[in-house]
Specification:
- This protein is of the alpha+beta class.
- It has a single domain, classed as Cytochrome P450 (Cytochrome p450), CATH 1.10.630.10.
- The strands form four sheets. A five-stranded mixed sheet has the order 1-2-8-5-3, sandwiched between helices. It has a three-stranded antiparallel sheet with strand order 4-12-9.
- A hairpin with an 8-residue loop joins β10 and β11.
- α11 runs antiparallel to α15 and α16 crosses α19.
- The protein is globular.
- The N terminus is likely disordered.
């Protein structure tokens, strides 16, 4: 699509875009955003919102934008608009918005290279026995009637990330609340949320700094030791290591928690597909890809802009124009996925964009996939009569999709 003239959308189209974006933030929109995405796509795969932002819903267009490193992350714009122009002075904002997730090359290139050298595919694959053990233990926490979110979907990824980083088992439970309170600033920048997040960030950073110092003196076979112990050449500073470990705790919990809760709801709503996975656990790898596509835990990525006039994916982006990449919409694009509203666990089509793409592709994606590939077959085998026991409660916010509460009966 050549999107070279904003007027091509027209006043009526821009009004529709504004109405849809407003509806997405309402309870009904959070409950089921997919019909609203289709309204946007009916106008075009990339449209301009009333505030001038480019809203992209097409799979191919989103994919190209994610992979074009010329688009810059601009978190400082949102922080200043929310009343935090001096955001570096706040512990929570400094720890979150100064992380690799928010910085641009060349700083991003250096951090990504150093961490990728430690967070290898072999290290993640080596966690499978621990993940299987942790999943089995988590299953026992939801036997009978319970809340799947608090009993399984939240503690599982925090425990697994604790295993990866080398956090002692006795200390891992405290990170469940710390990571939740700290990472809340991604969606809510109210004074109350930031104050609470500051307390959590201070406690988290202090603990991780002490642990990193211990690992430098007495390294073990864990990620913090690997990141702290590089000899010679370039290496992560103490502050960078703490920020990276904190981000992995956040990224390794938020996204996976959403994947687990969204995925379970989808499976329970499609018992034929759940039965296929129960009978054939080897289906887990494509099944997790389909669950990521069907109801993505990350629905949209914002905070990107053009540092000058650019042409990407066949349309023009003007200097300083904000870009909103709608991952949840892209994953339901009928031009790429046949019958996109259906859950088909062995779907053999394009990979979902749920973990982003390009230089900012999620570092924790392989681990999130591993956890889900182990968790769903284990849950279905352990609890053949697993069912919803009440109305699911969606979490607030539009960027991250998941559940605040998910009552289940495993009897």
């Amino acid at each position: 699509m050549a999107f070279r003239d904003r007027a091509a959308v027209g006043a009526r189209g821009q009004q529709t875009v504004g109405e849809v974006l407003t509806a997405l933030a309402m309870p009904g929109g959070r409950a089921d955003p997919y019909p609203l995405y289709e309204r946007l796509r009916a106008i075009g795969p990339a449209v301009t919102a009333p505030d001038g932002a480019l809203v992209v819903t097409g799979y191919r267009e989103c994919s190209m934008l994610l992979r074009d490193h010329r688009l810059h992350k601009t978190p400082e714009r949102r922080l200043a608009a929310s009343g935090y122009p001096q955001w570096q002075d706040r512990p929570a904002l400094r720890l979150m918005f100064g992380s690799i997730m928010m910085v641009n090359p060349p700083a991003h290139t250096r951090l990504r290279r150093l961490v990728s050298a430690c967070l290898t595919a072999r290290r993640v694959a080596g966690l499978r026995p621990a993940v299987e053990r942790i999943v089995a233990s988590a299953c026992e926490q939801i036997a009978g009637d319970s809340d799947f979110v608090t009993g399984f979907a939240v503690p599982l990824p925090v425990t697994v990330i604790g295993e990866l980083l080398g956090i002692p088992a006795a200390d891992r439970p405290m990170f469940t609340d710390l990571a939740r309170d700290w990472s809340a600033v991604l969606e809510v920048l109210s004074p109350e949320a930031v104050d609470r997040a500051d307390d959590a960030a201070t406690a988290m950073a202090g603990y991780l700094a002490d642990l990193a110092a211990q690992r430098r003196e007495q390294p073990t076979d864990d990620l913090i030791s690997a990141m702290a112990g590089a000899d010679g050449g370039d290496r992560l500073t103490g502050g960078e290591l703490v920020t990276m470990a904190a981000l992995l705790l956040k990224a390794g919990s938020e996204t996976t928690t959403g994947l687990l809760s969204n995925g379970l709801v989808a499976l329970l709503a499609h018992p034929d597909q759940a039965a296929r996975l129960r009978a054939g656990p080897l289906l887990a790898i494509p099944a997790v890809e389909e669950l990521l596509r069907y109801d993505s835990p990350v629905q949209m990525l914002s905070g990107r802009s053009a540092p000058g006039d650019l042409t990407i994916a066949g349309f023009d982006i003007s200097d300083d124009q904000q870009v909103l990449v709608m991952l949840g919409a892209a994953n339901r694009d009928a031009a790429v996925f046949s019958d996109p509203g259906r859950l088909i666990l062995d779907r053999a089509q394009q990979a979902p964009l749920s973990f982003g793409g390009g230089i900012h592709y999620c570092l924790g994606a392989p681990l999130a996939r591993l956890e889900a590939q182990v968790a769903f077959p284990a849950l279905l085998a352990r609890f053949p009569r697993l069912a919803l026991a009440g109305e699911p409660v969606r979490r607030d916010g539009t960027a991250l999709r998941g559940h605040a509460s998910l009552p289940v009966s495993a009897r």
